[in-house]
Amino acid sequence: MSAPPVSSAERPAASAARALDIVRVLAREPRPAGSESEARARAYCAERLRAAGFVVREEGFDYSAFPGRWGTPVGGLVALVVLVAAVAAGRADKPGVAVLCLALGGAIVGLAARWLARTGVLVFPGLRRSGVNLVATRGNPARGEPTLWLMAHLDSKSQPVPILLRAAGITLVGAAWIAGVIIGVAQLASGQLNLGEGWFLLAVIASVGAVPVIATTVGTRSPGALDNATGVATVLTAVEEARDTPCSVCLTSAEELGLAGARAWVQVWPHEPAVAINCDGVDDHGATTCMYTGRRPDTLVASVLAASARTGSRVRAHRLLPGVLTDGVALADARWSVVTLSKGGARTLARIHTPRDNADHLTGTGMAEVARVIANLLETRA
Hints:
By secondary structure, this protein is an alpha/beta fold. It has two domains: 12-65 and 127-159 and 219-381, Aminopeptidase, CATH 3.40.630; 69-119 and 163-214. It has helices at residues 12-26, 36-51, 66-91, 95-123, 163-190, 196-214, 225-241, 260-267, 298-310, 327-333, 346-351, 365-381, and strands at 55-64, 128-138, 148-153, 247-252, 275-282, 287-292, 315-319, 337-344. Helix 1 crosses helix 12 (365-381), helix 5 runs antiparallel to helix 6 and helix 9 (298-310) packs across helix 12. The mean pLDDT is 92.
């Protein structure tokens, strides 16, 4: 499975074929976190990285699968219960109770979700699991840790709800929550204003939004070609093309279960927060995006956009969509400078986490394009 040498001037068609070959190997079966199929995928990637001049090691970690498996459905159910309780209070002409319910419920749900996402995924006592991250470094050890990390996750999952529908549901629930506070305050301020129809409409909107959120359960039916064999293949193709550049790679496990691998990895990171490019979901069609969360990493975004211009690619930068999680979120929470590179559109999101997410839908051109951007950035920084 070792890869032959590849130059950065390799023809795009050959680069696309190379990336697609990697995806076909990785996506020939689903890769649930901790499974034997994920271990086989990790061994394949380790062999390619060694052939590209990397020193490779495995780093084990322990985590809770509860936040990743049940955090979203439980959160959606709790949010709906709080909203229904507020609606009932508002329709009973108790706007003060409704506003208090929404304020306290929002604070509790928000704090619980934040704790589960950032800390609970590693320490929560239920559904304990073990995972393995693949870490590889190429460069002169005397120069210290390379300043740029390339990341992608190896595991896959399936869900009955498309990711775009889930994001829309979360947005609707959030909008209903804000609208409830506004209606309650208006009713409280007027003293005599009857907003029963408004509260009823709010209940309908909240229910419609909560259904796809509550239904977001985790399965093992997706081969995970787009999500995220393409991200892994893009990283491997980039480092194989930029063979003489120092860099590091981290291929995580359990990204699909609350970003557990990335959160565990940055927790034990012994140095100052570093710089990383995460690859997640690289289709052939659609827009190429440089996504970030938290404070915009201006220097890194500018570097990626400059590399895209040098390679003739068109990349746009924007924030992650609500409800969309990538390993970059875990790194940003740990104060890393990080962006996630992706390529696709609505049809891409419709395939992710479904049994249709296989290599048959891909040609590799998108992966080759993004890999050229990363390779150019690596060569420029060297």
